Amino acid sequence: MICLPGVLLAVVCIILEAIVFFLCVIGTPIDVYKSKVNTSPRLCYSMWGYKRCGAHKANPDKLPNKGFPTSNIRSTMNAAAAFAIISIFLALVSMIMSVLLVCKCLSRIIPGVFSVIAFITTLIVWACQAGVYYKKYSVSSFGVETKIKIKDGFNYAGSFGLFVAAWCLQTIEMILVFFA
């Protein structure tokens, strides 16, 4: 793959970055966790809070902490949402930089730097989601403190998989752009 001419490699980078951009745009608003209990309506969590699964408004009941069991989970998911938006922006900028690389308007270092930053922000998104999924949180209800894990009542939904896929493709693109 390294033997490919620089322009062709830059075109591959544009295609990969377009896919990363698309995955980040789709993965940002959709469900991160889906309830294991198949009730009607089925409950989910997006990065924006608790909701009915599917295309429904997050936290329709205006629950505290956006419906998350603790403020720590809310804070972590807010960070994931912020980095998801940053990832969308950086994927778009990286794609534009790759187009400029094809035109030989700039050196490969500049698109490479943007790709590295996009790699990091995309990693942070799914790392926050995975961290919330596996970590034990203390929840106090009526003076009784219990330990919970999101993992015990929920499975991963689409957003997590899309961000992991975006991160994998961003990793490949990040390496290739330095050889373009």
From TrEMBL:
Source superkingdom: Eukaryota
InterPro entries given in the database record: Amastin (IPR009944)
Record-annotated membrane-spanning stretches: 7-30, 79-102, 109-134, 154-179
Record keywords: Membrane, Transmembrane, Transmembrane helix
PANTHER family: AMASTIN, AMASTIN-LIKE SURFACE PROTEIN-LIKE PROTEIN-RELATED
Protein name: Amastin-like surface protein-like protein
Lineage of origin: Eukaryota, Discoba, Euglenozoa, Kinetoplastea, Metakinetoplastina
